[in-house]
Amino acid sequence: MSNSSWRLDRRTFLRSAGVALALPLLDCMGWAEEPAKSTSRPRRLCSIFFPFGVCLPPENHAEYKNWNWFPLNEGRDYRLTQTLDPLEPFRSEISILGGLSHPKGRSVHGHDISPIFLTGGDPRNSTFSNSISIDQQAAETLGWQTRMPSLALSSMGGIGIRAKPHTLSFNRRGDPIPSESSLRLIFNRLFSDSQGANRLESARRLDHQRRVVDVVLDQAKDLRRQLGPADQRKIDEYLQSVNEIEGRLERSAAWQDKPRDPVSADGLDLDAHLETPEQYVRTMYDLIALAFRTDTTRYITYMIHAETETNLANSFPKLVLDPKSVGHHDLSHIRDPTGYVMFGRYDRWLTQQLAYFLGKLRDTNDGDGSLLDHTMVLYGSGCSTLHNPNNYPLVLAGGSKMGLKHGAYHRFSADVPCANLFVTMLDRLGTPVGRFADSTGGLPQLV
Amino acid sequence: MIKPSPRNSLSDLLLQIALAVFISVTANAAQPVEDSTSYQKQILPLLTSYCLPCHGPEKAKGSLRIDRLNPDPVGGPDASHWQDISDELHAGRMPPKDQRQPGPDERRVLSAWLVETMAKARKGVAKPILLRRLNRQEYGNTLRDLLGLDLPFEQDLPPDGLSEEGFRNDSSCLTVSSMILEYYQKIAAAALDKAIVTSPRPLANRVRWTVKETEKKGAKKDEKKVELLPEHLPPQDGVDQAKFRLDGAEIPAPPKGVAIPTDHFLLPTGKLAGTGSQRFDRATSVQVRCPSEGPVRIRVSARATMTIGGGATAAETVSGTNQDSPWLAVSIGRDNTYGPTYQLLSQPLPVSGLDQQIYEFTGRLENMPIQLNDKLSETKMRLQMANAFIGPDDKTPGPDLRIDQIEYEAPYYATWPPESHRAIFIDSPNRENHDIYAREVLERFMARAWRRPPSPVEVDRYYSHWKRLWAESQTLASEVAKHPPSAAGMKMTVYDQIPANATLQTLHALKPVGETVVPNIQTSWWNHPVLAPYQKKDIAVCYSGGITVPRKGKYQFTIESCGGSRLYLDGQEIIDNDAAAMQHDSRKSGTVQLSAGSHAFALCYRKGPTPRVLLRQISWEGPGIDPTSLPNESFTVEPGPPVLPLSFEETIRETLTAVLTAPPFLFLLEENKTTSRDISDHQLASRLSYFLWNGPPDEELLQLAAAGKLHDKAVMMAQVDRLLADERAWRFITSFVNEWLELDAIDSRMINPVFLDVLDRMREETNRFFHEILICDLSALNLLDSQFAMLDPLMARHYGIAGVTGYGFRRAALTAKDHRGGILTQASVLAGNSTGRDSHPVKRGSWLLRRLLDDPPPPPPPVVPEIGADDPKILKLPWKQQLQHHRSNPACASCHQAIDPWGLPFENYDALGIWRTKSQVNNLPVEARSDLPDGTAIEGLAELRSYLVTMKSDRFFRALTRKLLAYALGRSTSLADTEVIDGLTATFSADDHRLRSLIKAIVTCRPFHEK
Asked: Looking at the complex, does the CB of residue A237 fall below 8 Å from at least one CB of chain B?
């Protein structure tokens, strides 16, 4: 055909479109290079949250031995109830943790813990201040090594409201990082290279953004000269933010021309939605496993459902157990003797999905072991049962090759803050911190 | 009854204070205490022996560590702590009676130093007002006012921090991060994209429904079926078959002797539905396909009737007042698994005439709950007409409403280009000269967006940004012109012997058996010259080329095929209709965001069980395109120019994004060329408007500022009255009242969703109440106790107050048996300070101290033992006993004896603020008796209210003054503001505590005019 040149002189074309800037930069940018190949495998973290706590019948109740979320004995000889029973095949690859919670969260409503679940921030209404979540902490140090430094997922999308956010990830200032919920969009964002017009359009957009940054930087610097020292500090905050954006834009530009390994969407039910919970949650887990396998990102959070009743995900129990059942929140308020069974059955359903995910990771080879050996999975809720913000139900799985020791049910006393777990996790991720939030040490039981 | 206790009367207290001052004066003369060395030598040792045991490194009770306080009240940040210490010492509360007490001389030295320190602090320089960014709400209001678009721009922004005072406009809490800046950039780009139009006027969908009465099959003799019949008005493109559904009950057969109207649609007043907001039981709705965004207009021809409750005639039912007219509510919503969810399009209107009249409702679809998922073709909305009249209870019928006709139009533009576009692209004689015109447009927009005229340097900066974009765009245009357009059509490649699960990649690896150019995708191979020979074989066909997209936006493609099919755009898989379609007919859709221009297109198909059909259908839809088969003219054999040159409007749009991301837009209060602390007229205009409108100054304020008239006191007073009379003052009221009274606390209570309808209105009641007092110049004492309430029928029902029917809030007189009056009795406050299921005296007491009396109790210790944690039996006791038990723990007692007595009088109000005499939780009678800290014994909230009015009103007025000043200035106050606050409180009191006078005093006080 006469004008296939559209394909050939893309560079010329881009230059005339004013996008030229993005291309030559690639050559001089360190992060466009493949990160130095080291023999050790990437260390990954996936944190999963579900709301409204778990079923914990009183010990003298008939259903205690069937549906108590926590196992029946402590230590290595613990016995799982029907709730966590789907994890039996992973016994040597998981630890069950009881008794942990964030001290600052103990005086707030048990449904207001999700903003600090991964941060250990202060959720109390009068003093609310959040801080960085563990995934972001790790991504800050090592996130540059992958195409996407981190990824926040949820079934709701966006950021939600302060006490009941739709995301588990928070930046260093405690601002929520918006989550993604559309399976197909997540797939495309992770794995497909946009080509042709859309690709050029995004290059052009990137270039425009960089130029906007230039203009506003000028404007702000001008303004700064006319201010007193206190006001200058405010403008400096702005200038620093603009510089950060500039860095990020350049990094995007660098990755943009680096082709991705082709990933097929075969076998992924990207059309699943919230009214088909099992397919939806499993596909989300599939995508997470795929993102890890391809090393597209190493730090992922997934909020299965926010602590609100207004989202469709609250009706998962109705859709997976029994249409006559009630929403997840109502389920957590046991109102009659059969209540424990229904609540427990839904807890089990959630466990089954986790087992599916862990199985997927275990069945995927990764270097000297499986993907599960090189991936840490934290699973749990910020409420034990009803509105009780103590004794979070937690499972820590995987990461055997990252130095985690599993096989037991550990109970911790109230003077061990949950952040101690984070210190150990961050340490094993290769992004050690001396302290995290209100930590007082690590959890030596796990290493 | 209120009985001041003999133990500790007010006069005692005054005496103590007078004594302390006297002591200080004498002590001062005797041994002046001046510098920090004397603090080290004389004061610190005293503090160490008497205070630090509890407020030092060991214990830090009430989170106070006196050893860490900076003794310099002016240079250091701790003046207010010293004030508290001084108050406690002089009131004799500290050190506590059971602790070691300082001797008289020691007390004198300490007191003298404290009094002097406080005097120094008050003479200090008040904190400057720092430059700050707009908060979430201000940002949204600013963009809405600037662009004239009613859209929730701020909804994606992260929440702002809360200042010490409890407000969200304090500079120290409004930090800037790269994340929030990226949001600003994204939001600005999206907002300008909506404000500026670059395409021809979109075709509107218009549908009209007319009420018709038809014969009902199998109906009884007199029964008729009334239904809405749709009629598509031109332009008809893409209008779905509108379906009709009656949500309410069937229209009952009219009683004998009543004339049957033949052309009306009758909406009896409804009983309220149980859950969900904005649902009406007796309503009618229609379903119609709609665009996913844009303005919408609904016009309804309706009239009031002479009937009540769908039948009985009533003579004089319709007087046209709120009370007894029917109200027409138009809501838009969607069906979901729980049933429909609706939201009001705009405020309901009273229908008073007995003759047909047109009622118009407009709004934007983006604000409506219409989208269930990303599938464009499923964007259907349910349009609901309801009679929003609410009667005294569910049984009593109200006035009926008749609907004759409904007309729907979306997108609805009164003019094209819309007002938002014309406000940016202003009229000018230089319109044709791009260079001059761009400068004019930029300068005008910058002046509005930045709330001050831009300097020539600044205009140059953005002009050259534009200039570069424009030059590049023109180069690109000439580049594009050099290339002849590609031929129409697409490449069709045929493959033989196909492996299962073939994808585009695997197909490309195969050797094609045929290739040709076709005008469009073939849906059948019947008689097709290339394909016909393969009819019996397992083949795959791949179509590829370019598809030209006319406008950027979200597009949805739909394939229906028998045989596997996959669609790719720009190399991304958009639809995977493979596995399912190999078994049977299957239809799938995919949505993608596309830029204007040519996109690489590929469609793969492999043969399924049906021999003659290739694809049943492939269609698309997008901005301005209703679902339709892909037209031949959109295809080219080779992809065309991948990026189209930007138009003039688009280059301006890109430049304006930078204007809206720059500090002068995002920040309040900026450069001052002089060293003086005075602010400019333009800054004053912004201060006024962000105070009283929570948004940007309008043209009038900016003009007064430009003319240098705003500093004139008379002009300013007139502007305050004008601003308060404007509807934008409502934004000030909601923002100030919600933050001052912590009304958002309701959101974090788990309240039975049955009450959702009422929850929405609780906050509004308190806002309306404040508004009424402000606008009608009533005394602010009404806030503590009033003879009226602002109620709508739902709130009135909630409270069990009779006589409020119809729709909307209005003043309602109260009697003692209503148990209401003032904000203390309002459900917003009572529910916000409850557990959600029961009352919570500690929360309520603490709220009263913090918000109304400005006497915050110390924060709770980090680990609060739950009440009843050690003994669950405690939880079975009434609140009063539970708290007594709690106070028996000495660690809790010191704070709780100051809090609990203020909360117990609220006990007659349950978690939702409903009056009760028995607790729903344990079925015991509630006890609302309390001994206040000064010894006064009171019983119930009525007595607490009169106690506050008689004993604490001065404290309350000062607290309100201080809070409003802090809000107006956007900074917390300090001791250095004492004089100003005293002055303001005096002015406030001198004018019968009218809020308007307080506001006027605040905007004329010195700090309001200073940096």
From this structure: yes
